[in-house]
Design goal:
binds ligand 26Y; 33 helices; 6-stranded parallel β-sheet; transferase
Length: about 800
């Protein structure tokens, strides 16, 4: 294999032979898929060498590992990162040029691995890339979902969900490892700590290689698949159906009881299987379970893998026969927890009956943990109401975050502000109890995908000015600051943006039929649809601008054309979020077809926003919309991708926006709205009156009147409007005036090119901190303490 990728000619020869061998085709008659599959096969085989080398190194040097447990890994297309990180992209590119193949087109044949739905899953994917790239033995652990997060189509202005059958074509990058299968029990009953008569499920690992950048390190992401096993005596319909459901989809509908069982079952399956395979490996290497913490950290990505804590207790006590205290100490030195949520309703809780029924022995262990935890609090003279809030089981539910904090040696938030809110407000009781566990790890993104891959135009500009070393160490991009006011460089940034806008314009034209003006400001909000992210605030301003363009000549004269672009999926059962999608689409049709404003204002909702779409959107943006209600967005990571590609943030001081503004300079972003502290005070005072704001603001009245005309009947968007008037929990109306002002300021600033591109360059130059290489290095320095793989 070695020689195949060593130069263009050997690669060409191998490719021709493989195409013939695999598909009985030649260069001319091979289909796009066959070209792709042949390339992927060859590359995966080649990567196996580095994978084996890495595996052996880690084993022979007895290196500690981090297992990153996450329900989601939103990895997108692997062909992209694998070609780039392995360093073989230029050879393949050259060979394909000779064949008359378009590598880009071939890459696009690969379905996005949509094993996630949002920020948390994409963060996990960036972490895999970064950990391998900084040569740390970190391995992902998750489920092999047969269907990814749904494919979104917009029909009749509404979101419609279609299944994402991403595995329809074989997933070339995975390797099934039968020999490492483990068996997981559900249901049954407990007699003297022994689980009797359980329903056994076989869990088989599928390993997907993760390639470090130019360092020959290849780790893996382990995806578990549930299968029937002969350990279970009766393969009846119920059993087979139960097993087959486990891997069917990510976040199955849990509005009914069966769905809740299924979700908990998914969580236990990948948690228990991951722990079991780590312990099997640990013991096979002749180590004592008492030394587990020396060799593993189990990082818990949000609460979904919480069950590793009681599961590890179970193994240590029931299978390894350690005493409770000794087992607990090991668990407490091995597990670490990352929190990604502030919204109280998002903190996971499981109904006690479901939990106990599905996982009887695990429930007993959680009960015992709870008993000891409560006793400890009592000994410390905690008041009863405090204890009731903090205990692991309360109000008939098992509280996953509480288990995580109690069972972990590290608890981290994902941005400075987020961690402060956790410490001082949301988790303050726990912080007082365990001040040393709490720490911050501000999120990051892999600049390899989110700059090197998606924006070669910008890479070229930077390379020319400061050399190429920054590609390895993104903090060095800071040197670009020296050129912030250089008009020649500013012009280069402007033409980079134009090139990226043109590519996006073409894609949007193909997808939606809407033709965007390339001279306009590209103002983009792409993220999950959630009320706290306030896509609604964006729409209200758009409508206001539209009405003003039609009524105020002076405003129109001074307004620079602006394209507002949205991409967002709403959870299938989230009615309000779906209403907002419909509102955006309705508004866009009216605005885009109004000849009076047509050349100045366009609104586009791109459907099925995913990693691959994101790759077109981030580089084309002038304005990054980060307008969540302050205190609600834990971090955001899209904000960092925009920044790195030279967009200016219009945002609240929320999540990582705070650090973005600090690093790039407050005057290089457009910050508006209530602060987190003000928001908290409004909630505390409990006297927020959105209707009063509405009644005093003619603009809001006009915008609402416009929305009321959109329905099929007069009351169509009542749901949305009444919510704003009567409740407005996310303070949309409170921030409206300030947001309108920020938008006006942005539009004006954009017209002053020297100022705008200075701001843009300052953003790029200060994005170095947001490399996930930095984030991972901090996790390692403070939490994991892994040694580097050094060949
Ligand atoms: C349904 C329930 C179990 C659930 C499913 C998914 C709860 C939460 C999630 C996902 C949360 C998520 O994606 N959080 C985001 O994590 C990012 C990475 O840290 C942050 O940047 C972002 O602010 C946060 O909303």
């Amino acid at each position: 294999m070695k020689e195949i990728f060593s130069n263009k000619d050997t690669f060409k020869g191998a490719f021709i032979a493989a195409l013939d061998h695999l598909f009985n085709k030649n260069i001319e008659n091979a289909s796009l898929y066959e070209r792709y599959a042949t390339l992927a096969h060859l590359l995966d085989k080649k990567l196996a060498e580095d994978y084996n080398k890495t595996t052996n190194y880690v084993k022979e040097n007895n290196l500690k590992k981090t297992i990153y447990f996450s329900m989601e890994f939103l990895i997108g297309r692997l062909i992209t990162s694998n070609l780039m990180n392995s360093g073989y992209a230029p050879i393949v590119q050259a060979a394909f040029n000779d064949f008359g193949y378009d590598l880009n087109e071939i890459e696009q044949v690969e379905a996005d691995a949509g094993l996630g739905n949002g920020g948390l899953g994409r963060l996990a994917a960036c972490f895999l890339d970064s950990a391998a790239s900084v040569a740390l033995p970190l391995y992902g652990n998750s489920l092999r979902y047969e269907k990814g997060f749904f494919v979104q189509k917009i029909e009749n202005n509404k979101q419609v969900e279609y299944p994402d059958n991403w595995l329809n074509n074989p997933f070339i990058w995975e390797e099934r490892k039968d020999a490492e299968a483990v068996y997981i029990p559900f249901y049954g009953y407990v007699e003297y700590t022994v689980l009797k008569n359980p329903v056994w499920v076989k869990a088989v690992p599928y390993d997907v290689k993760v390639v470090g950048a130019n360092n020959e390190v290849v780790t893996h992401l382990r995806l578990w698949k549930a299968e029937p096993t002969s350990l279970h005596y009766n393969h009846d319909e119920w059993y087979l159906n139960m097993v087959s459901k486990i891997n069917e989809s990510l976040y199955p509908d849990d509005s009914k009881e069966a769905g809740k069982y299924l979700r908990l079952q998914q969580q236990y399956l990948f948690s228990a299987a991951g722990i079991k395979s780590a312990i099997n490996e640990h013991k096979a290497l002749g180590r004592s379970v008492k030394d587990l913490a020396k060799y593993y950290t189990f990082q818990i990505n949000d609460t979904h893998p919480t069950l590793i804590i009681p599961e590890l207790m179970r193994i240590l006590m029931d299978e390894e026969h350690l005493g409770y205290d000794e087992a607990w100490q090991i668990v407490n030195e091995t597990c670490a927890y990352t929190n990604h949520t502030i919204l109280a309703e998002a903190l996971e809780k499981w109904n006690v009956d479901i939990f106990r029924n599905l996982l009887p022995r695990i429930y007993e262990i959680v009960e015992e943990m709870n008993r000891r935890f409560v006793r400890m609090l009592q000994e410390k003279s905690y008041a009863e109401n405090k204890i009731n809030e903090m205990k692991l089981i309360g109000n008939n539910s098992v509280r996953m975050a509480n288990i995580c904090i109690y069972g972990s040696y590290s608890v981290n938030g994902v941005a400075a502000l987020h961690t402060e809110i956790l410490k001082n407000i949301e988790l303050n009781d726990f912080y007082q109890l365990y001040p040393n566990k709490f720490n911050n790890k501000t999120n990051g993104i892999t600049h390899r995908r989110w700059l090197l891959h998606i924006n070669p135009e910008l890479v070229k500009i930077i390379d020319k000015l400061i050399g190429t070393e920054w590609q390895k160490d993104l903090s060095l991009v800071k040197a670009l600051e020296n050129y912030a006011t250089d008009t020649k460089v500013q012009k280069q940034i402007k033409s980079m943006k134009l090139a990226k806008k043109r590519a996006l314009i073409q894609k949007i034209k193909e997808d939606t039929g809407v033709e965007l003006n390339e001279k306009a400001i590209f103002d983009i909000q792409i993220k999950r649809l959630h009320e706290y992210k306030r896509q609604l605030l964006n729409v209200l301003n758009i409508i206001y601008v539209y009405l003003r363009l039609k009524s105020d000549k002076n405003f129109k004269k001074n307004f620079h054309a602006q394209n507002f672009i949205f991409g967002a999926k709403a959870a299938p059962s989230y009615v309000m979020a779906k209403d907002i999608i419909e509102l955006i689409n309705k508004v866009s049709h009216i605005i885009n077809n109004d000849p009076e404003t047509n050349d100045l204002l366009k609104v586009v909702f791109v459907s099925n926003y995913n990693v691959s779409y994101a790759e077109f959107l981030f580089p084309a943006a002038d304005i990054s919309e980060q307008i969540s209600t302050a205190s609600k967005e834990a971090s955001g990571t899209g904000n960092m991708k925009f920044m790195l590609n030279g967009a200016v943030t219009v945002g609240t001081l929320d999540g990582a926006n705070v650090e973005i503004a600090e690093l790039a300079g407050m005057n290089n972003e457009i910050i508006f709205g209530l602060t987190a502290e003000e928001v908290t005070n409004i909630y505390k005072a409990n006297n927020y009156n959105p209707r009063a704001i509405y009644e005093q603001d003619q603009r809001l009245q006009d915008v609402f009147a416009f929305i009321r005309t959109l329905g099929d009947n007069e009351h169509y968007f009542d749901n949305v409007l009444n919510n704003l008037l009567n409740k407005d929990y996310f303070l949309v109306l409170a921030d409206f005036a300030s947001y309108v002002e920020a938008q006006e300021k942005a539009n004006k600033l954009y017209q002053d090119e020297q100022t705008w591109y200075k701001m843009s360059i300052m953003n790029i130059a200060n994005a170095g901190f947001f490399s996930s290489d930095r984030t991972i290095s901090q996790y390692n320095a403070d939490i994991w303490h892994l040694k580097e793989i050094k060949f």
